[in-house]
Amino acid sequence: MAGVRLEGVSKRFGQFDAVANVSETIRDGEFVSLLGPSGCGKTTTLRIIAGFEKATAGRVFIDDRLVSCAQTGAYVPPERRNIGMVFQSYAVWPHMNVFANVAYPLKVRRASKRELAAKVERVLDLVHLTGLENRLPNQLSGGQQQRVALARALVAEPALLLLEVAPLFWTRDRARISG
Ligand SMILES: Nc1ncnc2c1ncn2[C@@H]1O[C@H](COP(=O)(O)OP(=O)(O)O)[C@@H](O)[C@H]1O
Ligand SMILES: [Mg+2]
User: Fold this and answer.
1) pLDDT tens digit string along 134-149?
2) What does the DSSP assignment read for 76-103?
3) Ligand 1 within 6 A of 13 CB?
4) What are the extents of the domains in the chain?
């Protein structure tokens, strides 16, 4: 896995600071969780690292490669950052079956049919979805849909994996969901 470095990263929506001056270094091989109350900027930070959102200040490096610099406008789009991302809502495509959802990142990269089939088969085996290739997402359980999203994030062997999952906190008398 690649390292990530954020240098003074901010994101302002109008007058509102969604992310304010975040600096953080995550080393290659580390597994890091962002924890904080709903609305504190976790999703926006992930989206900036992935490239779906442009920071309004600061710089982002992935493996020492500058992928975003607010000052100069330098910006590498998501598909050229070699990352995989699982969205909180999974964001699997409802009109595409399991195979097509998982194969998509390889299609974009113009992988050969043979390589594509082999890699999809391997990653479906990894997430225990072998045999469900022809199902549509609405024919799957929530957990199976989540594993389709995970397989899609892993299939192109990304250098960096971003997982947006809602942690579940149990307090004494009620369950609270944050994220
Ligand atoms: N596109 C947007 N326009 C305006 N405000 C936004 C936008 N996206 C997020 N926000 C605000 O930015 C803050 C951080 O949002 P977010 O990163 O989604 O929080 P978290 O994932 O930690 O719950 C929230 O207050 C949210 O309402
Ligand atoms: Mg969030």
Assistant:
1) 999 999 998 899 999 9
2) --GGGS-EEEE-TT----TTS-HHHHHH
3) yes
4) 4-82, 98-158
